[in-house]
Amino acid sequence: MKFQPDRSEAQTIRGYGPGWIAIDQEKFTSSLIISSQGLRQDWNCSRFEDLTPAHFAALAEIPAELVIFGSGTRSRFVPPAWLQPLMARRIGLEAMDTQAACRTYNILAGEGRNVVAALLLE
Predict the structure, then answer these.
(1) For the chain, how many helices (H) and strands (E)?
(2) Structural domain for 44, as ranges
(3) Any domain includes 1
(4) Is position 84 within any domain?
(5) How far, in Å, CA of 91 to CA of 83, rounded?
(6) Which pLDDT tens digit goes with each residue over 42-56?
(7) DSSP 8-state assignment for residue 57
(8) Cβ distance 46 to 100 under 8 Å?
């Protein structure tokens, strides 16, 4: 039985709600990309319909073993052809709604995995 709390060196999503995500002690109200390796940057899209293949090509440039794509308020998938840059670099992608993506990112980052979360805030 384990009695001490889990601690992670990775940045952690502390909360989320309609239109916001809290990472560590900072609150964000626009789409963003974070990684367990410390990356935190804006993701220039505010709606699922704004996404283009270039958004996923940029994700392929980030060293990671897996990208968690939070597609907004509901789970949606992009055309498979958009994922070619990720597949070429052997980076996996899992798509889910943004709240599920936040929870999944925390679990994987807490395990020490090299994971990126691309989180769409609508």
Answers:
(1) 3, 8
(2) 30-119
(3) no
(4) yes
(5) 9
(6) 999 999 999 999 999
(7) H
(8) no
